[in-house]
Amino acid sequence: MPRPERKPNRAFFSSGPCAKRPGWSAAVLAEAWTGRSHRAAGGKAKLQEVIDRSRAILGMPEDYRLAIVPASDTGAVEMALWSLLGERGVDMLAWESFGKGWVADVAQQLKLDDVRILDADYGSLPDLGGVDPGRDIVFTWNGTTSGVCVPDGNWIAPDRQGLTICDATSAVFAMNLPWDKLDAVTWSWQKVLGGEGAHGMLALSPRAVQRLESYTPPWPLPKIFRLTKAGRLIEGIFRGETINTPSMLCVEDAIDSLKWAEEIGGLPALIERSKVNLAAVADWVAATPWVDFLARDPATRSSTSICLTLTDTGQLTDADAAAAPKKIAGLLEREQVAYDIAGYRDAPPGLRLWGGGTVDPLDMRVLLPWIAWAYEEICRAPAAAE
């Protein structure tokens, strides 16, 4: 296969941190609130702006609280787990690395007595119909390392007694979330917004707030996890009064990406850009006999973390076949065509393309012939040489 001539304008297809928005440069940070206290009026205004713009774009209900919290999406999820769980039994859903990590934390660190694990192999979802609405539910909306997402929120009972805790970091701003079905929702700026790391977002429903104010976990809570004081919600956390010191450069960058999202048409435009990226890959996969989606069911295929598996590696040995995706990714990185597209370290060997809204659909289409070329170089050329 001849080497393609045209390259993507931007080679950033990493699934985290993800591509900056089109046209981004460090100049957007010029108005950052640096060298000043984040607790001064100007600093708090910047933090509140991130909260307000996020709420507006996502269409979050007015009675939901939203906060900027420490330690990226991981910190936000841990804060929710440690602060909310233990009042009743919990169903843990896991079908990829991060979901399995939350299972380990709840079972091995919190050591809850009543934990049910509903899991599935990479490429599939667990039985969503098996969840118990009388129990709390913890799940990832989008399995970032498997490319498998829940198709909707219809499986969550509207009259549930338990809380739903949703890690939505690679779904929010790219997929429609049914807020009325979700009680604690977490994400980070460096995913769909293409922002910088170390900061998380935590959204709480009125039901989650009621749990916080009526239930005290039996374990000690580190300072960065504490959302209540004397049995009442610490409201300042949800008004830009962050628990710890944030990076105001990262805050400015988040404001820039939110403004860009508004300019292109808000959430519908972000979702559409992501869907177009997935459609381009789907058309290519349908026409390419040696590759397939890791997600078996088209209804559960992620439009952000698009995970692919090689179904035919020619005459390569098993060891060489397992290493082929990383070699393909390495070759494309050397060609400055695509950066960081090897599958996640715990996932089955494969490729992972980020398809969120900050990736231009044209760049995704231009990338695909390069993957085909690299495949021929890695998987077919050795056999031809023999």
| CATH homologous superfamily (4th level) name of the largest domain | Type I PLP-dependent aspartate aminotransferase-like (Major domain)
The count of helical stretches stands at 8
Roughly what percent helix? 25-40%
Widest sheet, order of strands: 1-9-8-7-4-2-3
- The CATH architecture classification of the largest domain is 3-Layer(aba) Sandwich
- Poorly predicted parts: none
What is the terminal separation in angstroms? Answer: 18 Å
CATH class of the largest domain: Alpha Beta
The value of Rg in angstroms is 22 Å
The secondary-structure element order is HEHEHEEEEEEEHEEHHEEHEH
CATH names the topology of the largest domain as: Aspartate Aminotransferase, domain 2
Number of strands: 14
The main pleated sheet reads as: 7 strands, mixed
Q: In what range is the share of β-strand residues?
A: 5-15%
Structural class: alpha/beta
How much is the average pLDDT? 97
Number of domains: 2
Shape: globular
Would you summarize the structure shown here?
It contains 8 helices and 14 strands.
Structure overview:
By secondary structure, the protein is of the alpha/beta class. It has two domains: 237 residues, Aspartate Aminotransferase, domain 2 (3-Layer(aba) Sandwich); 121 residues, Aspartate Aminotransferase, domain 1 (Alpha-Beta Complex), CATH 3.90.1150. The chain contains eight helices and 14 strands. The strands form four sheets. It has a seven-stranded mixed β-sheet with strand order 1-9-8-7-4-2-3, with helices on both faces. Strands 12-13-14 form a three-stranded antiparallel β-sheet. The longest helix has 25 residues.
